[in-house]
Amino acid sequence: MTGGVDDVVLWIGLALALALMVSGLHDYVRDRRAPLQRFGERFVYEFARPLVRVRPSEPVVEARLRVRPYRRQVEVLLAPRGGRPYPNLVDHKQNVEYDVERVLRVLEDQRFVAGPLYAQGQWVVVPLYLRVSPKQAGGT
Fold this sequence. Notes:
This protein is α+β, with helices and mostly antiparallel strands. It has one domain (2-130). Helices cover 44% and strands 21% of the residues. It has two helices and five strands, in the order H-E-E-H-E-E-E. Strands 1, 2, 3, 4 and 5 form a five-stranded antiparallel β-sheet that branches. Strand 4 and strand 5 form a beta hairpin. The mean pLDDT is 85.
């Protein structure tokens, strides 16, 4: 009968170990995701801040974030709102590029760099990458 008790103890131990591993993995992903998420949110706020609002209570642009911790990337997706033409890469590519550079200067976070902008349907996609420091990359 002791074999049955030993089996139960073993299964409980395995379940606890698995729960700890899942919790640790969740914390790891959350910790890698948080700075990307925060920077993306700050980027959207600063991008939209100087734009003229039709109604003060409504956002001036549509925005979404795609956070990819495994790539050390956050993609900011921006689209016109309420029949307005900005932002889009067809008619306003230079303006959008200028505003992306302006936002990066204002945010003063040297850890992030922008990749090339591209369009995805109605969205302008601004890929932002978290730079890898030499220490993190295995350098000295």
